Amino acid sequence: MTQPQIGATDFIADAVRADNTAGTYHGRVQTRFPPEPNGYLHIGHAKAIVTTFGIAEQFAGTYNLRLDDTNPDTEDVEYVDSIIDDIAWLGFHPGKVLYASDYFEQLYEWAEYLVGKGLAYVDDQDTETISAQRGGFGKPGIESPFRDRTPDENLDLLRRMRAGEFPDGSHVLRAKIDMQAENMQLRDPVMYRIRHTEHHHTGDAWCIYPLYDWAHGQSDAIEGVTHSICTLEFASHRPLYDWFLAQLPLPYEAPRQLEFARLELTHTVTSKRRLLQLIADGTVTGWDDPRMPTLRGLRRRGYPAKAIRDFCVSIGVNKTNSRHSIEELESHVRTELNKTALRRMAVLRPLRLVIDNWPTGEDGAPLVEWFEVGNNPENPADGTRTVPFSGELFIERDDFAEVAPPKFFRLSIGREVRLRGAYLVTATSVVKDEAGNVVEVHARFDPATRGGDAPDGRKVKSTMHWVSATHAVDAEVRLYDRLFSADVPGERTGEVMDDLNPNSVEVLTGCKLEPALADDTAPGAVVQFERLGYFAKDAAQPMLFHRTVGLRDEWANISKRKA
Length: 563
Hints:
Distance between the termini: 35 Å
Oligomer: single chain
Helix content: 25-40%
Strand content: 15-25%
């Protein structure tokens, strides 16, 4: 499958091209996507995946998935499996699936190497003290009283740390760089901490674990990564990334770190802490809730992987963080589904329509006609299907008004409308319940208008969808709104949860669908409910449909306003 490529004029592509021209890596391009397996991937990760893997594809290089699993307290095999699955669903197939924990022995050997060179030391102070001594911008750092231990002393303590002699938090290994450096990352960063915790991949083989900055760049080097592509928050880490690599006997040329702006969307948060909070407090049902920005949630909602890739490519790579409109993503989803989704008829808020002059058979039962209807006007190759039509139908409650208000052109008493692909009908009367609500509409049809056109050429102003009452299947449909009401959650009060939308989902039961949606629609498939929008059939729960997006392209109007 051909993947969309990052544009040839973006700064990352320019940097890779310049390295190739200079022969820096002998024309070799190798990238990796290194998520920590402590949660599910979200739309921001999709941008990183498309950028990182897309660059490798553009330059005929290779790319791998590496699980940066250095924190056993928060990581789990559940997340590992979900990451592998989501990347495959997105449409990428890494050459290898690797683990930072596979390099723990090499990382430890290099740590001893730095200790031997006097470039790392064991510190007995607690985390709070070390953090306070680092100082701040314009505030000098304070050197640890253990900073000048001899290499032999440090090596002995480090080996005893590994052997499990010390409790959690009692010792750490720190790089010995510069406690007065302007870049705070260089003020003797911690390399190892003690954690007597089971690891999902290495079990109980280790009780000391490397921190991100010690594991990350060195893992890149071990694997032979040429271009370490990451988001802007790691730009301040680059001097430390380069410092570690410069001290070590590497098997390959040192990789080059390049940073780009992360993806942020309006009405959305992607912080794992916040997403976990939404799950824990019951606001959403889990990582795959269709309101979540996770790939698992977007997939369940019916977002096509190609639409997500196309969106990520369209916004390009930048050096400045910005927030993109969620309507822009939805526009890509709508464009893709318009080409691929089969059309079906569904009535979400049903109102019974009885055609009084509809013919009956000898047994007195209404006859059934079958109409041939196209599956997708955008793709004739999708063929046609037959849809049953009878004397009792369901129409949308909003498509009828006993007395038509101004500019209401749908069905009302005395007005004629077209039933999509079938006949012209005119409403004649209604049946109401004790509360005065219309529960049934009676109408007459014109037998000469089969197919929806009048032979005398008369015109109607409305075409309505319908479902045969006799053949309808029941379904539950969930309609989704923004999970957060504000464009930038938390901007007003500083607390993102203040902007939660209490009406982010509407659950409709007793919806009436044409039988093809039960018989011929696979779990997970996305179809267009005519006149209503695009809906995904739930992969696990029979006859549950999630609204993916509506039919109206809001991004087109937003773009016009911005122009």
